[in-house]
Amino acid sequence: MISKFTAIQGESFDYWKIVGLFGALFVLGLLAFGYIEIQGHHVTGMNQKVVWGLPHVFAISLLVMASGALNLASMATVFGAEPYKQFRRFSAFLAIALLVGGLLVLIADLGRPDRGLLTMIHMNFRSMFTWNVFLYSGFVVLCFLYLWSMMEHEKYVKITGSAAFPGRVILTTGTGSIFGVIHAREVFHSAITGPTFIAVSLSSGTAICFLLLASTFKATGREFHPKLISGMRNMLIFFTLAVFYLIVVEKFTKSYSPAFYDVEKWVLTGQWAWLFWGGIVLAGIVAPLAILTHKTWGNSLNGVMLASGLAIIGEVSFIAHVLLAGQTYPFNPFPGYVVSSSFQDGAFGHYVPSLSEFMLGMGGVGVAGLIYLLGIKFFRLLPKKAEAPEHWAPWNP
């Protein structure tokens, strides 16, 4: 059933135009990095309360999507889903591209990237940041080994693919735990944060895979079987419902506790409530589910592409809400104790991102886009034709 893998020709004007666009984003990111590095972080919108700004939103969004992008490969290798076997190479390579883009933004936004090596020399194993050094680098290695085995040594695919699956779960849990374990940040602190990050990763990763596959196959004149559209739509429905379920559970359990009344009221009605209701609930959950379960839109390529784009907007909104709402709510350094000082006790933070922060974040998107575009040109990552088994009948609304 699986067609031979080929690289795209990549000789058209449209292809190089897109490469130039992502290259321009990368250059803008470099300029923004140089400007912030020379002038200092005071030229950004970040301050003493909000130390993780818009670049971190871009970085973490790309990292979370990278983990989810491996979903198609995991479905084929670990769970034996035959229709997605033809996308394993694409899936693993895209995961690497997104991860590299996110990590570059993360490093560039540290303030002193030249001192990044110190975190590896002086490690604090009680910090999730220390563990993430191993998780991110380990995930890249696992994806490279997985890709290598698919291209050169098929007999190792089951081993490398099975190793990459728990690696991606641990990676996303570790990213979510950066926030979930911070007890002094009441908006962050939650045992459900890690699982919610996994659900958001699966949803957005599947969405970015479908968007890129559909657009690449359409641009290169390759056939994409309608059954595959239905199958990936069903995955999006399931993962979106998982995101909805976990968010409802978290809000219910926190709102049930008197200690979190004020926190949850502020989350749902405060200055960042528009991100929660408009970005997460409407764009990330309600609108995609309405499209995907519609008899006409849910079975059309453009309809599923639109829902995928909205799912990605919802993922970015989720990351932005976690970061910004969590930091602008008054900091409680010693939970359970009354603390007073002359410095901003009980004060809400304010944050307005600067253009340089946006440019820096888009630079990471540019890097990920360049890696993907050059990858499908120089490596055999895509099948000539996306086929589906004759006996396979995915559910239709």
UniProtKB/TrEMBL annotation:
Keywords: Cell membrane, Membrane, Transmembrane, Transmembrane helix. The chain crosses the membrane at residues 15-38, 50-70, 90-108, 129-148, 196-214, 235-252, 272-292, 304-324, 358-376. GO terms for cellular component: plasma membrane. InterPro entries: Electron_transfer_protein, NrfD-like. The keyword Transmembrane applies. It is found in: Cell membrane. It is a multi-pass membrane protein. The keyword Membrane applies. Belongs to the NrfD family. This is Putative polysulfide reductase NrfD.
